[in-house]
Write a structure and sequence with these properties.
With about 800 residues, the protein is an alpha/beta fold. It has 24 helices and 31 strands.
Length: about 800
């Protein structure tokens, strides 16, 4: 080995060799074997396996070489394979570069894997639609499965599958990856692949790998690395220092600047230490900054210009290649006047110029960079496990040993502005846990159906009927809905004063709340004074036990950038994108104290009473505006009405609206051919697939003397008649048929739902239909759920009051037969 291993690593490598040797004889007899290396985060599992490979190919210290052995290294990510390959290259004496082969789907086509080689492949290349798994043709002679099968057949005892799932844990929930990995473990007759007899897995816990092995009759040979040995070795730092705000005012950029100061201090300390100790090279710490996800068209919600500017106040100008990013969905970019180049995570450690790394989540998996001393995360406390995984990658010591002369160099500093004490404890809990820490339709044949020209009057009648929208658009806050409605009323010329009027209502309420809080909130003056401050908890965590070793508080003055950021955050909380916070500032700001009104609004929005009070007011304003202008909105073009209707739908609740049917629908050209449908082709026909019950129910309705027409109420179509019901939350119910009957010069509309009464949703849908009848029954005829018992149809009409009352009184455990009695 080119590296000096820790004693526990060398011991584990030798134990693995011993277990592989015992397993080989069994594998040659067709008995399946699994050697499992279970080791905690930071123990150097890849380096341990590098020693195993060197021992296998070159022997030594009483170990006989087996140079004909083939290693196939399987992971779920090409980036993980690059990292592992680089580690093996830097560590192994007996594994030259040309004998490390990354399998490429475009060029790889071999009948057998060669001895003395390590092959790397990832599960992303082995899906059913991938080149490596397609049947041989002009471009290749073998599938990869055939290559593996041939290698097994040649010498099963000299073929070792290494499964690298230590970084991400291939569990049963990761279905696609697990399925592919288990093809190697369990075999796949359809692909001509037998189980690989000799498997070597590395994992944080043996339970995780055992779960991957499944129920196969495979002898398991565990090798465990003691976490205490890892900690004692100096491979891991001793202390994690976590900074998080004590108050609920998130000081993003203020903490970022403090983190940059800390990183600058680390840089100087490491330089002094390395010069003093005459190290071969200077340890150059990296500052890693985790930013938020973006939205469509926006790379990240974090303001990168501000991030660069704040960091450079401490670092000085960052030159080309000194600040990089690892965003999966971007190439080289610019921010803060700097070119920020893309760098793969696996290359960070080997690129000495890098000082600052921007990323989202790419570093959390399979990334090793002991130079990472300080991290700042702009992300919110939604996934403490991912933060813990990331910290687990950071706590490696840069020199693979403890620095006894300066304990600061045995620490990691973590800045989490959006993690309160409870969220912090969840991160620590994850670090203590070894298991964690350390719809579009596609059809081949369709037909466009237009409105049936004989039913123009029917469509006019249907426009007067209600339908519901259930979860069709994302929920929008009521404040934002009210402002959006007012803005649309102005834009479309319905009411030129609407926007100004609704903003005045909200400003009046905010002012009332400010005056109230100034009298009732004790710390109000501290929060809103010019140059406000935040209190920050500094928590020290002992790495060994992951227990809080000490804590203190400090106060930091909010920077102008942070005040601006928090002011914009207040605007987002009130109504994202509507500029209500800017309206507040323009109305109430003091030229002598320009930040005062901003700090006021920040403080107002932080009070728990504020948003509920504004939301209640907004609901009143929205409904008043809608009621006042509904008749004018109805006269607008359909595209414009749709924008108004979207605001109704965005309430987060089932929203009633007028039933607006399209001019044409498109449906799969399949099933029986029917007449008198509301939509038809030029021959007056409509095709649809109906089951036996549906056919019988429809034919029965069509035999009635007053029958006019019908509509196949297609499930989940935007235009379909929808009725809300409750079953683990509000859900949409689309009855099968709308039946039209003639009543003199007008029409009667029935709803008909032939329903399998063994389904769990039968009673909830019946109750939903009953409640619909309570609200809108006067506009309909029969509202029927039907079932067939033997040869007899049984109906429950929710527009029959006794039936409706009985239905609404039924409980989940009620006998469904009572519905139809």
């Amino acid at each position: 080995m080119k590296l000096e291993l820790k004693s526990f690593q060398d011991t584990a490598a030798r134990d693995i060799i011993g277990e592989l040797d015992e397993g080989r004889s069994s594998a040659a007899k067709g008995k399946l074997q699994a050697v499992i290396l279970a080791a905690p985060t930071g123990s150097g599992k890849t380096i341990t396996l590098a020693q195993v490979i060197d021992f296998t190919f070159g022997g030594g210290d009483g170990i006989s070489a087996r140079p004909n052995t083939v290693f196939l290294w399987l992971s779920d990510s090409p980036e993980l394979n690059v990292q592992s390959k680089n580690k093996l290259l830097s560590a192994c004496d007996e594994l030259p570069f040309h004998k490390m082969v990354t399998i490429d789907s475009d060029s790889f086509d071999e009948d057998i894997l060669q001895g003395s080689h390590v092959y790397f492949i990832n599960t992303q290349l082995l899906g059913k639609d991938k080149l490596l798994t397609k049947e041989p043709g002009d471009r290749r002679d073998f599938t990869f499965w055939q290559t593996v099968a041939n290698t097994i057949a040649r010498a099963p005892q000299d073929f070792v599958l290494i499964i690298d799932e230590a970084h991400r844990g291939a569990t049963a929930s990761d279905r696609n990856r697990t399925t592919i990995m288990q093809k190697f473990i369990l075999g796949s007759p359809a692909d001509g692949l037998p189980p690989i007899p000799l498997v070597l897995g590395m994992s944080a816990t043996p339970q995780r790998f055992t779960s991957l092995l499944g129920t196969a009759n495979r002898t398991q040979r565990p090798i465990n690395i003691d976490p205490d040995e890892v900690r004692a070795s100096g491979l891991l730092k001793d202390l994690i220092v976590v900074h998080n705000p004590k108050s609920n005012v998130a000081g993003d950029l203020t903490l970022l600047e403090e983190a940059a100061k800390t990183w600058k201090r680390f840089t100087k300390l490491w330089e002094d230490y390395c010069v003093q100790e005459k190290e071969k090279g200077i340890v150059r710490p990296i500052f890693i900054v985790q930013v938020e996800d973006g939205t469509e068209g926006v790379l990240t919600r974090t303001r990168l210009d501000d991030v660069v500017r704040v960091i450079e106040r401490q670092s000085g100008t960052l030159a080309l290649n000194e600040i990089v990013h690892c965003f999966y969905d971007a190439s080289d970019m610019q921010a803060g006047g700097r070119i920020i180049r893309k760098l793969e995570p696996s290359r960070i450690q080997e690129t000495p110029d890098v000082k600052v790394v921007l990323f989202k989540t790419a570093l959390s998996t399979g990334w090793d960079c002991p130079r990472a001393e300080v991290m700042m995360s702009f992300r919110h406390a939604q996934d403490p496990t991912s933060i813990a995984q990331l910290v687990g990658r950071m706590i490696r010591t840069p020199l693979a040993r403890r620095i006894t002369t300066n304990e600061v160099l045995d620490t990691v500093e973590l800045f989490l502005p959006h993690y309160d004490s409870e969220a912090l404890e969840e991160v620590l809990k994850s670090l203590r846990n070894p298991e964690e820490g350390l719809g579009t339709r596609a059809e081949s044949s369709v037909e466009a159906y237009s409105r049936n020209p004989t039913m123009a009057k029917v469509f006019e009648h249907l426009k007067t009927l209600p339908t519901y929208s259930v979860n069709r658009v994302p929920k929008m806050s009521d404040v934002k809905r009210a402002l959006r409605l007012a803005g649309l009323l102005v834009l479309e010329g319905v009411d030129q004063d609407a926007d100004e009027q609704v903003r005045e209502v909200f400003l009046k309420k905010l002012r009332e709340l400010r005056d109230k809080y100034a009298k009732t909130v004790p710390e109000w003056g501290d929060v809103i004074r010019e140059g406000g401050q935040i209190e920050v908890d500094v928590t020290q965590v002992a790495v060994g036990q992951m227990k809080i070793a000490g804590a203190k508080s400090m106060r930091l003055t909010l920077s102008d950038e942070n005040i601006e950021q928090l002011f914009d955050l207040a605007g987002w909380m009130l109504a994202a994108g509507e500029g209500l916070h800017r309206t507040y500032w323009k109305t109430f700001h003091d030229k002598e104290k320009p930040n005062q009104a901003k700090l006021e609004l920040i403080a107002i929005t932080r009070q728990p009473e504020t948003l509920p009070a504004l939301e209640k007011l907004a609901i009143e304003e929205f409904h008043a505006g809608w009621k006042k202008h509904k008749s004018k909105i109805k006269k607008l073009r359909a595209s414009i009405r749709a924008r108004f209707n979207a605001l109704i739908q965005a309430s987060g609740k089932a929203a009633v609206q007028d039933w607006d049917l399209p001019e044409q629908i498109v449906e799969k050209k399949d099933g029986g051919i029917w007449e008198k449908h509301l939509y038809c082709n030029t021959n007056g026909k409509f095709s649809t697939v109906l089951n036996t019950w549906e056919e019988e129910a429809l034919e029965g309705a069509m035999r009635e003397k007053d029958f006019v027409g019908w509509l196949r109420n297609l499930d989940r179509r935007e235009w379909a008649l929808c009725i809300p019901y409750e079953l683990g939350g509000t859900k949409p119910f689309y009855p099968d048929f709308v039946i039209l009957r003639k009543n003199g010069n007008s029409f009667i509309v029935d709803i008909l739902e032939p329903h399998d009464d063994t389904r769990v949703d039968t009673l909830p849908k019946a109750i939903g239909l009953a409640k619909f009848a309570d609200a809108h029954g006067g506009k309909f005829g029969h509202l029927v759920i039907a079932r067939k018992k033997g040869e007899t149809w049984e109906l429950a009409d929710m527009n029959d009051k006794p039936t409706r009352v009985k239905t609404e009184g039924m409980q989940p455990q009620s006998n469904i037969d009572n519905l139809f009695e």
